[in-house]
Amino acid sequence: MAGNITIAIIGAGAADEPTQRLAREAGRELAMRGATLVCGGLGGVMEAAARGAHEAGGQTVGILPGYDRSAANPFIKVPIVSGMGEARNVIVVATGQAVIALRGEGGTLAEIGHALKLQRPVVALAAWRQIEGLHRAQTPREAVELALTLAAGAKA
Amino acid sequence: MAGNITIAIIGAGAADEPTQRLAREAGRELAMRGATLVCGGLGGVMEAAARGAHEAGGQTVGILPGYDRSAANPFIKVPIVSGMGEARNVIVVATGQAVIALRGEGGTLAEIGHALKLQRPVVALAAWRQIEGLHRAQTPREAVELALTLAAGAKA
Amino acid sequence: MAGNITIAIIGAGAADEPTQRLAREAGRELAMRGATLVCGGLGGVMEAAARGAHEAGGQTVGILPGYDRSAANPFIKVPIVSGMGEARNVIVVATGQAVIALRGEGGTLAEIGHALKLQRPVVALAAWRQIEGLHRAQTPREAVELALTLAAGAKA
Amino acid sequence: MAGNITIAIIGAGAADEPTQRLAREAGRELAMRGATLVCGGLGGVMEAAARGAHEAGGQTVGILPGYDRSAANPFIKVPIVSGMGEARNVIVVATGQAVIALRGEGGTLAEIGHALKLQRPVVALAAWRQIEGLHRAQTPREAVELALTLAAGAKA
């Protein structure tokens, strides 16, 4: 078994409205295709993506930095309580078989770097043009379809 | 939300037959009461508990030490790919709202220690008589009922 | 090179006076033999051991759980800022080539478990009689000499 | 106390000759000013920086990803055995009070991201022009002087 196809969605913990819309839509598209969402479990892009996936009846996993499971946003069905601080970012992208990266700051940049090192394919959605080695998408739907294709390839 | 009640089952990665029977039965009892199982995702007690939970239709989460999701035993529905080595033991017990400890060795002892430090209640099932501060159960059913009661109390 | 012989001293963060005396004496004995001390960097046994090592001119390494280097006790010469929470306990015992365990609680128990799993020899000093698989010493000097002998053997 | 001023030098584990020369020179400049070097402990930029620091009589700390201290390059005086895999990158930049970033790939990018998130000042040395929020230097000496100034400011 080894579970469902799992895709990470990453981005700013304090995200602007358009970025949150993209994240929510990407979460919804993921869930509609039966994939599991993994994210950092907190606010901003993490919450918007989990909300979208939840609204479409999908599975949502949140890797929390602290020891308090109640820190998870309300759309996380499987909170993972890591206590690893920033190092939990490694777990988010390692658990994803591919990664969708929205606009973010240092934490998101760290996740992109870890994904590249761990050879998890990264799809940048309307962001991160300055970073080489990423796949590109303009819409949430395109990002999700590309991530699922790449995840299937990475497994093969 | 913050998810289902989640209970960790811990014990030897290479377990004898009676210990595996106890673990499988504990996994089954957990799932029958609607709780989620979290474990280390590999063999022995981890696999037996996940098998029991899976057979009863329950949710199973495995926190893997390496970067390879295919290392998960076949009964893990949500593999978490941590890459944290032995430190993933902290995540197992932190994610459980209570812990059921079967016979094990150094890794299990480490998990018991972390659970005590993090104030996760620990129910020892037919093992660990030498360690103070644990709750005790003689059967899987008793262990599961006690763990669920303690988890509810820890939440309150 | 790969550095000096390094010994971990572990025990309660809030230790009674006799335990602190043992820790300080063990730190001093370590330093007098030219070994490096690694510990968790905070108070109680960690501080007493670092103080003893510092007073004898030894090297002291503290693996801190948070992101604030100023949390280190004043006798730590090399603070390591891990941000890993309780998981930093794994680093303490993995960095030691042998471990001296004084009286402690859950965190110390976790470290003993990790050391056994990682095959780091553990010398219990006036404590932990209930745990199997440990070496035993009655005095700090005896503990240090045994730990150094075991560390040399573990290297060979 | 809380130790010496500590600067992280990061960059590719398999670095070209010019990048290694920059790293070695940066390590030497650091040591000549009495600062401690922290790095990832392995090859490429990590080894070149440690070599430079070692040649100038400086202190060198290497945060290793695995459990084997002999994996450290021969210029590491204080090997820290983390077993945390890629997550050890967080410890490298958290332990530095400022960071000097040379040319690198995913792992280095992850470290830059973590440093930005943890508010450790980053000085990019002849690399990483595409990343915003970094300080810039053209020579190792300039990078070291800037990093030391920034580290002092970050402490104040």
Detail the topology: elements first, then pairings.
The structure is a homotetramer of 156-residue chains.
Chain A: E1 6-10, H1 17-32, E2 36-39, H2 45-55, E3 60-64, E4 78-81, H3 88-95, E5 98-101, H4 106-117, E6 122-125, E7 135-137, H5 140-155
Parallel strand pairs in A: 1-2, 1-5, 2-3, 3-4, 5-6, 6-7
Helix pairs in contact in A: 1-2, 1-5, 3-4
Could you describe the 3D structure shown?
Four copies of one chain form a homotetramer. Chain A has a seven-stranded parallel β-sheet with strand order 4-3-2-1-5-6-7, sandwiched between helices. Chain A contains five helices and seven strands; from the N terminus they run βαβαββαβαββα. Chain A has 156 residues and is an alpha/beta fold. Chain A has one domain: 3-Layer(aba) Sandwich (Rossmann fold). The first copy, chain A, is 40% helix and 19% strand. Chain A is globular and about 35 Å long. Chains in contact: A-B, A-C, A-D, B-C, B-D, C-D. At the A-B interface, strand 4 and helix 3 of A face strand 4 and helix 3 of B.
Care to give the gist of this entry?
With 156 residues, chain A is an alpha/beta fold. Helix content of chain A is 40%, strand content 19%. Chain A has a seven-stranded parallel sheet, with helices on both faces.
Choose one word for the global shape of chain A.
Answer: globular
Placed side by side, the strands forming the largest sheet of chain A appear as 4-3-2-1-5-6-7
- What quaternary form is this? homotetramer
CA-to-CA gap between the ends of chain A? 15 Å
Major sheet summary line of chain A: 7 strands, parallel
